[in-house]
Amino acid sequence: MQSIGFFSLIFLIIVINQTSKYEITFSKIDNRAYVFINNELVFDSQFVDGNPDLNLSLNLSPFLKKGDNLLKIQLENGSNLNTFISDTHWTIRYEIFENGKSYDYAYESSKNGEAGLIVYEKEHYIYLE
To answer: pTM for this one?
Structure first.
């Protein structure tokens, strides 16, 4: 009976080690970022004042399912006082990691004068076996 329990523990450890870990790290958000996985909101940065350098990470793995996963990043430009202020500049920079190695990267910046709801949207695909 003791050997069966030991075998189960080893099997469980092997399964856990074979699972990929995905995370996203934001280094710029001007002014608010949303992260969706399979069309479900999993993160809202809230409004970030100005355009500071960030080191904001989110573990994506708990939200991923086996098979195809759609990761969507959206950016809102404005402020928490007035979403539709005249803000001529927006920036977003983030990197997606798989097991600590770079998987995908995005850096976008514009002075197109767009303010208000979503001014930037990008989709990434993650496949889990």
So the answer is: 0.78
DSSP sequence for 20-67: --EEEEEEEEESEEEEEETTEEEEE-----S-----EEEE-GGG--SE
> For every one of its 129 residues, what pLDDT tens digit does the chain have, with 9 covering 90 and above?
455 554 444 444 444 444 789 999 999 998 899 999 999 999 999 988 766 788 999 999 999 999 999 999 999 887 766 555 566 788 899 999 999 999 999 999 887 666 566 788 999 999 998
Q: 101-120 burial by CB neighbour count: b if 16+ within 10 A, else e?
A: eebeeeeeeeeeebbeeebb
Answer yes or no: are the C-beta atoms of 99 and 60 closer than 8 Å: no
d(C-alpha 32, C-alpha 51), whole Å: 10
d(CA 65, CA 68): 8
> What are the two backbone dihedrals, phi and then psi, of residue 39, each rounded to the nearest 5 degrees?
65, 15
Q: Look at strands 101-110 and 90-98 and give their pairing.
A: antiparallel
